[in-house]
Every structure is written in structure tokens, then in C-alpha cells.
Amino acid sequence: MPKNYFIGAGLSAYFSQLLHWREGDVCLYRSKNIGDDTIRRPELEINKIFSSNAKSYGSTRYNLARSSLHDRSTFGGNSEVWGGFFDTAHIKRLDKLKADGIKLIPLSFNSTGSHSNISSLVQLQEPDGEILNAAHHLRAGSNKYLHSLDFESGHILLKCVSPEDPDGSEFLADGRVFVCTGVVQTIDMLMRSNLIKPGDSLTLDEFEYELHISAMPKNLDSREASVISYAPGRALAHLFGIQKANFLSSFTPFVVNQIFHAYKRSLRMEAGINVLSGAPDLTGNEKSVHFGKSIHYCNLRINGERLQDMAARLSTKLHFVGMASVSQAKPGPISNDIFSYLEKITNEF
Ligand SMILES: Cc1cc2nc3c(=O)[nH]c(=O)nc-3n(C[C@H](O)[C@H](O)[C@H](O)COP(=O)(O)OP(=O)(O)OC[C@H]3O[C@@H](n4cnc5c(N)ncnc54)[C@H](O)[C@@H]3O)c2cc1C
Q1: Tens digits of per-residue pLDDT, 201-225?
Q2: Is the shortest distance between the CB of 16 and ligand 1 below 6 Å?
Q3: pTM
Q4: N or C, which end of the chain is more exposed by having fewer CB within 10 Å?
Q5: Ligand 1, residues 60, 73, 228, 320: which to mutate, most atoms within 8 A of Cβ?
């Protein structure tokens, strides 16, 4: 039977494995050796006081104005520090999560320290109440950093580097390939693969996002926006990277509202040689826009072509899984969009 390949060690890799892994499939996780053309990008790093310390290394410099992208290249990725919010509204295979021991806890100040105007939101938790961390669920694999992709007579060629193979190793995949390497590292890898070339234009979208303490903004249409309200103790714990509710989580002298508005913004970038430059699109006389605050940016387009269409054009077996491949229909958590995207991938190809 053809082997499937799963690359990456974050939430998307976990969801991909949960829905599509079969005996004999191969999992490749990022190794420490990621090639000679590597630079450190502190501006892309996202760490919290109580999280492990992750550094961003890659082959592309990000020269972005009024924008933040994030690269957490660890075993677990962003799921080590995320909020765990997941919208169950259109998910068919919740049974898969439950069978893997994941608890789907409805939001309430007593249980999760949070509340939402969207009743179908839950927090994904480990059996001990910790917020789901993909690192606890990933299958055994080997440490290989995906350097680039190539295509040979209908098969996908994965070019990898690792400390054991400093000169690199190659895998000719006859099954499906799930590339779950996060937005930044996916762009890096596409540039190394020459699938993004100097002069190409790239865009990402996100729903406008803001934080408000207690009062809601006057112009908010709460039927359309997605609001997650935190007890102050829980908000502070989230900021510090404490991934479990505690006795302070239900104390609500005021709340911190995380608002995902129902209108989108875009980040427009242009590729150079090992560099990506860009800024958010502005409408009218806006000056204070900052793209990336939601950390739910998605829908990567390269010269107008969606990433998932690019994958289908290159090979029917290739799937980029993660925020870059989904387009959110409504504001709020994005992990459910990634899960839905995977649900639509059938086992025939
Ligand atoms: C603070 C924070 C809070 C969030 N809260 C929520 C929330 O409550 N709900 C929600 O829906 N979303 C939330 N998100 C967004 C959510 O965490 C992401 O959508 C999700 O983690 C994306 O997972 P990913 O696996 O695609 O990417 P990542 O988490 O970035 O993982 C990428 C993985 O790929 C590996 N990798 C990278 N490059 C390579 C390579 N070349 N070869 C091999 N491996 C590689 C990395 O080591 C890493 O393990 C939050 C994000 C943050 C940062």
C-alpha cells in the first residue's frame, strides 16, 4: 500500500494524522539541522513566560511593515501556547477527537474561565484539563526538516535535511503528502522549492481583531462578530502561557473581550531573493492598521492562486494543511477550519 507522509509537529499535523494516518505511514518532524542558508528571525518568534523557548530559523527574511507573522518551530508548534478554542458547528468527525481522549468542554467561566457569544465554541482539553497540546498525541517519526519539494513522474519528491544526513536525504512519496509546516515555514519552503519566485505577489487575509476590557465597542454587531470573553485571571494566565484553568479563572470583576470582527483585512507581500516585503492593504485614510494581531491569518494566495489550488495543480496527492490553506467563512477560531479542510480530503486519489 502507498505510504502517506506527514510533515510538521503542530496542530495541523496532529489533525492530519488523526484523520488520515494508516499503519506504515511516515511522520517527519523538524530537526535541529535546517540547512546552511539559515538566518534567525527574532521578529517572528512567539514565546510566553511559561512556554518552551522557540527560535525562528529559516531561509527568508521578512521585511514587513505594520504586520506580524509568527513561527513557532517546536514539537507541538503553536498548540503549546494556544487558547484551545474550536467551533464544533460544522464538524462531522468529533468522534475521532473524543476517541483520542480529547475533551470538548463548553465555554463557561467556571470550567474554562471564558465565555462566548457563539454557543458552539468549545475548548479542546487533555484529560487532565490542560489545553490540548499536539505534542502529546503525535505518532512516532523521524527528525527531518523538509527543505524543498520536487515532482518526478507523478510522484512527490521530499528533500530533507537532518543531523544524521547533513548532505540531505530524499523520499519519493507514492502516497499522500500532508505538509503541515505553519504559514511562515511553508512560505520559506515554497521559496526554496522555486514554487514562489522573486517578483511573485503573495496575500494573506484575517478578520479584524481587537481586545476590549469590559465594555464592547459601540459599533459592534455582535450577531456577526465572534467574541471570547475571559475572566481576568484566565486572560493573564493565557498571556503567561499557563495552559490550565485555576481557582482565579471563574472570578469576573471585569472581563477581557477578544473580538473577531466580521470584516477582513489583507497583507500584501512581494517575494525577492530570500526576502519577503509587505504591508497591510489600507482603505481610506487608515494609518493604525496592524495585520496579524489575531494570529488567525489565512488563505495564502500566490499571484492570486490559492495555496490549495496550487497544490492540486502540482499533484492530486499534495496537501498543504494549516492556516495558509483555509479561508475562514466566519470570524473566530481557525482550528475548526483546518479540521474541516482535512475532513474533505478523501482516501481516493
Ligand atoms: C497564542 C496563540 C493562541 C491561539 N489560539 C487559538 C485558538 O484558541 N483557537 C484556534 O483555532 N486557533 C488558535 N491559534 C492559532 C492556532 O494555534 C494555529 O492555527 C495552529 O496552531 C496552526 O497549526 P500548524 O500545525 O498549522 O502550525 P504550527 O503550530 O506553526 O506548527 C508547525 C509545525 O511544523 C514544524 N515545521 C515547520 N517547518 C518545518 C519543516 N520545513 N520541516 C518539518 N517540520 C517543520 C514546526 O516545527 C511545527 O511543529 C492560536 C495561535 C497562537 C499563537
Answers
A1: 999 999 999 998 877 776 676 678 9
A2: no
A3: 0.96
A4: N
A5: 73
Residue 135 sits at φ, ψ, to 5 deg, of -55, -25
What is the SS3 assignment for 336?
helix
Q: Determine if ligand 1 sits within 6 Å of the CB of residue 333.
A: yes
* HEC sequence for 114-127: EEECCCCEEEEECC
The residue written with cell numbers 478578520 in the block is 207
Centre of ligand 1 to C-alpha 289, Å, is 24
- Please say whether the beta carbons of 296 and 207 come within 8 A: yes
**Cα 132 from Cα 11, distance rounded (Å):** 9
123 lines ligand 1 (CB under 6 A): no
Query: 12 CB less than 6 Å from ligand 1?
Result: yes
- Render pLDDT for 252-273 as a digit per residue (tens, 0 to 9): 889 999 999 999 999 999 999 9
3-state helix, strand, coil in the chain (%, to 5): 20, 30, 50
Going from the Cα of 219 to the center of ligand 1, the distance in angstroms, rounded, reads 32
Any ligand 1 atom below 6 A from CB of 314: no
Residue with cell 514562489: 196
What phi, psi does 3 have (nearest 5°)? -90, 140
Residue 297: which of 138, 177, 187 has the closest Cα?
A: 187
Cα angle 174, 177, 182 (rounded to 5 degrees) comes to 160
Dihedrals phi, psi of 168, to nearest 5 degrees: 100, 155
Residue 238 CA: nearest ligand 1 atom is 1
